[in-house]
Design goal:
The protein is an alpha/beta fold and 335 residues long. The chain contains 13 helices and 12 strands. It has 2 domains: 136 residues, Rossmann fold (3-Layer(aba) Sandwich); 180 residues, 3-Layer(aba) Sandwich (Rossmann fold), CATH 3.40.50.720. Bound molecules: 2-keto-D-gluconic acid (8YV). The site of 2-keto-D-gluconic acid has 8 residues, from loops.
Length: 335
């Protein structure tokens, strides 16, 4: 019987990270960016002690039942709506994520979308590339004002606060909604309101809430109707937080000036309605995608996995109660 633990890397990560893992584990490296079916994932994890997964792999009770050795599912993502955390706890499996290390890159991207959408950057570039620029015009491609306006943030966690800090550099007043109001020291001058208040007050709104049944279609037709005419909406949270069809209507009618979107219902498929619109900036779920940040995310995820497999409580444990359960103890078996 060998004592080497077996870990699965369900998505491609940097090869240097795999090489380092191979020093201490038997590694099953999927080396693929393709989505796995639940059956493929269950088969891959059937004899694994640990798994590094992305936000695209779904972990639920049915999968866990087929993976008796599994001690840890380590998400290379801060959002963990792909993991049924209660099912993990019941099965004695630790679930972990990667908070903090992606705050700044993700906040940068939220601003990239806000700036590009407000100032019509994509549309202007398409205009130039199509050879349509023939003369300077006084009213050419006029955008929405950003500096000095009011920025609304719905979801004022660590990423929301990093976005708010950038807003101060644009002389913006920041209003926010969060289920619990922040302590004054963390508010940094931002004003708490209920979500409706933020939608009514802000000139531009950025969504940063986790996805759950309670945030499904948080922004639909009634909420879009509350927003100021000419507002810009940015979603870097999760597909499903916005009702995409309702947003398309609001963009098509000109009720909203523009939107910047990194996430979509049903992604990677897009509602085709977006593709006909000039006033929406679309990116393929890349808000955390810089080399340094992706490296930091993968390293934290590996660190979380290492800790669990060494019997230590990991830094970013999503289900602390699992630590005390007999179910977890039962999974810690020698190979
Ligand atoms: C991930 C994200 O790249 O961390 C998150 O929650 O949305 C992104 O940073 C994505 O989930 C893939 O794992």
């Amino acid at each position: 019987m060998s004592s080497t633990r077996r870990v699965v890397v369900a998505r491609r990560v940097f090869p240097a990270l795999i090489d380092a893992l191979k020093q201490r584990y038997e590694v099953v490296d999927n080396q693929s960016d393709a989505d796995l079916t639940p059956e493929q994932l269950t088969r891959m994890l059937a004899d694994a002690d640990g798994a590094l997964i992305s936000g695209r792999e779904r972990i639920d009770a049915a999968l866990l039942a087929g993976c008796p050795r599994l001690q840890v599912v380590s998400n290379i993502a801060v959002g963990y709506n792909n993991i049924d955390v209660d099912a993990c706890t019941a099965a004695g499996v630790a679930a972990t994520n990667t908070p903090d290390v992606l705050n700044e890159a993700t906040a940068d991207h939220a601003w990239a979308l806000l700036l590009a959408a407000a100032r019509r950057v994509g549309e202007s570039e398409r205009f130039l590339r199509a050879g349509r620029w023939k003369r300077w015009e006084f009213e050419m491609l006029m955008g929405a004002e950003l500096h000095g306006t009011t920025l609304g943030i719905i979801g004022m966690g660590r990423i929301g606060r990093a976005i708010a800090r950038r807003g101060l550099g644009f002389d913006m007043r920041v209003v926010y909604h969060n289920r619990t109001r922040l302590p004054a020291a963390q508010e940094n001058g931002a004003l708490w309101m209920d979500a409706e208040g933020v939608l009514r007050t802000a000139d531009h709104v950025i969504l940063v809430v986790p996805y759950s049944p309670s945030t499904h279609h948080l922004i639909g037709a009634p909420q879009l109707a509350l927003m100021k005419p000419g507002a810009v909406l940015v979603n870097i949270a999760r597909g499903g937080v916005v009702d995409d069809a309702a947003l398309i209507d609001a963009l098509r009618s000109g009720r909203l000036a523009a939107a910047g979107l990194d996430v979509f219902e049903n992604e990677p498929q897009l509602n085709p309605g977006f593709l006909d619109l000039e006033n929406v900036v679309l990116t393929p779920h890349i808000a955390s995608s810089t080399r340094a940040t992706r490296n930091a995310m993968a390293r934290l995820a590996i660190d979380n996995m290492d800790s669990v497999l060494a019997g230590r409580r990991p830094a970013a444990l999503l289900n602390p109660p699992v630590w005390e359960t007999a179910a977890r103890a039962a999974r810690v078996t020698p190979r």
